[in-house]
């Protein structure tokens, strides 16, 4: 960017010198705007990367177009190409864009957009870019993405040029009609219209492909990145405990999609619209009609341009006034939709429990209440949209006749030809479309802002969870690997998410190589203590020392079975193919699941097919395969009868003789299967403390 800013500055200085010699106001403007652009480009090193791309494009275009203009001015431009010499207004326009990009980088919402959008373009992952007939290239992902955006921006600008050319065709074509000039009519139709219309169609086709590729790749990257960060460090659990971001599924799927589509649409379409606005404004400005200030002789040039500007600015303001409440309403609507989807998904997951309890009535009521919320907000949205649409539709209708009304006196007075009248009507339409871009897209702006909000709060929630995991804010439970034999709780005070203390512990050793049973009243915090030892409970403080380099596995009461085959469920969280068939069969036989060995590769909803006891035995088979150094069982065999539970514990101790085992359980028969005992005892302040006991002491 620094280098580019020097090139811009150099060109601006040359333009200023040339303007002194030639006295051209256009070149002077080019120089002045260039100086400002050089400053903006120099400072642009500090703006987010996504905006830098635009800044870079406009800086480069200024240098290219500006150099062309100056060459034409000092007579260095080839005479054969005189017709296509870039006018000073072109470079000036792109310079204004470059300055605008720098200025909007200070707007908070633009900063938020750019912060979410930038990482994809900065990514340095290697990848293959398949350019079809042009070959396959290895390049950084970010480079490919930037190249695609640059290509699309330049293509969009070229399309504005094409439509400008077609606008001039209208003038000549209609004049030929009015003058009944058949040769010019046919010449214009065949040599001008057909050629430019074909170029226009092809450019739109190329744009569609390039744009779709950019968007799907960008979305793929963002979804993978959010998944990585959301799942990393157990953040998904921390976020759900802290309640800092509801419905993460909606944020990763829906919001990412709409954010990308709209960021693309707003940034590129905006540039196209502003380019259109500037180029066609020049057309409107050059129409030879002017008004005089009433009561004076002062002539205001560019009457039709000013009339269009005031008209559209007024309409934009009114739209903003009517449409503003839509932003909050759209946000609310998305939230309610996500809650409804979540309620349906939960119903599907707990279908058996609901059917057994005949809970369908309660579920129906809950669903209809949740949907009722959608409907309520929908009507509020509808009412607001109706008001907005009434205005935008009337406005769009009026646009068709406004240019004719404005120019009628000049046309009937013979000041302008019919061709000019139609050209103005078409240019007015283009300027209007560009100006009313904001008006017509107000509704999508509202939902866009809602998506930006949700993605920003999601990113903040992930960052907060990351900070907790990394020992930053709120991570007061320090679990460190040390050269110790036993896992030792030095001090530990656990709280509920609302801050209420539940467990106090100090100087408690979980002996290595032994089987320890933890008992205590329901709700005394045994599972919470396990969660804290596993490093996923963030509320509280303390110090825990764990033996170095040892692997820990926790088996909860309700095991999680992932979607897919039984083999995948057994290997989870490892890949399905890390264990041989023989190892898997042996583990299944040991936990008495031999009858399922023939169905290893069957894909099913295993979490709903297997009995509770079978699911618990499957989890034990998982532990036998994974061979952890520490095995924590949180009522992990509670669904088995006492005899089977005893047999399974025997298998665990026989197959994992080196493992240290810590179990939570209520049954007294479990004591015979353990060597040590820890009991949760109630303190005077209502909290519980784990204390080592002898089996006899515990009674
Ligand atoms: N995410 C949470 N939010 C709020 N309260 C929680 C949360 N998780 C646990 N609790 C509360 O913490 C207390 C301890 O729960 P925990 O599951 O640790 O008890 P437990 O001793 O394992 O009980 P049980 O023997 O019944 O399984 C309970 O009162 C429970 O309601």
Secondary structure layout plus pairing:
Layout: H1 2-22, H2 25-43, H3 49-73, H4 88-104, H5 108-122, E1 126-130, E2 136-140, H6 141-178, H7 182-231, H8 235-242, H9 248-285, E3 291-292, E4 299-300, H10 303-323, H11 326-349, H12 351-356, H13 360-412, H14 418-435, H15 437-440, H16 442-469, E5 476-482, E6 487-495, E7 501-510, E8 515-519, H17 526-533, E9 540-547, E10 552-555, E11 564-565, H18 566-571, H19 581-590, E12 603-604, H20 606-609, H21 612-626, E13 630-634, H22 642-655, E14 660-664, E15 676-682, E16 688-693, H23 695-698
Parallel strand pairs: 5-9, 8-14, 8-15, 10-13, 13-14
Antiparallel strand pairs: 1-2, 3-4, 6-7, 6-9, 11-12, 15-16
Helix pairs in contact: 1-2, 1-3, 2-3, 2-4, 3-4, 4-9, 5-6, 5-16, 6-7, 6-9, 6-14, 7-9, 8-16, 9-10, 9-14, 9-16, 10-13, 10-14, 11-13, 11-16, 13-14, 19-21
Please provide a written account of the structure.
This protein has 699 residues and is of the alpha/beta class. The chain folds into three domains: 1-106; 107-466, ABC transporter transmembrane region fold; 476-698, 3-Layer(aba) Sandwich (Rossmann fold). Helices cover 64% and strands 12% of the residues. The chain is built from 23 helices and 16 strands. It has helices at 2-22, 25-43, 49-73, 88-104, 108-122, 141-178, 182-231, 235-242, 248-285, 303-323, 326-349, 351-356, 360-412, 418-435, 437-440, 442-469, 526-533, 566-571, 581-590, 606-609, 612-626, 642-655, 695-698; strands at 126-130, 136-140, 291-292, 299-300, 476-482, 487-495, 501-510, 515-519, 540-547, 552-555, 564-565, 603-604, 630-634, 660-664, 676-682, 688-693. The chain has a six-stranded mixed sheet with strand order 10-13-14-8-15-16, sandwiched between helices. Strand 15 and strand 16 (688-693) form a beta hairpin. Helix 13 (360-412) packs antiparallel against helix 14. It is elongated and about 115 Å long. The mean pLDDT is 87. It binds adenosine-5'-triphosphate (ATP). Adenosine-5'-triphosphate binds at residues 241, 496-497, 502, 520, 522-528.
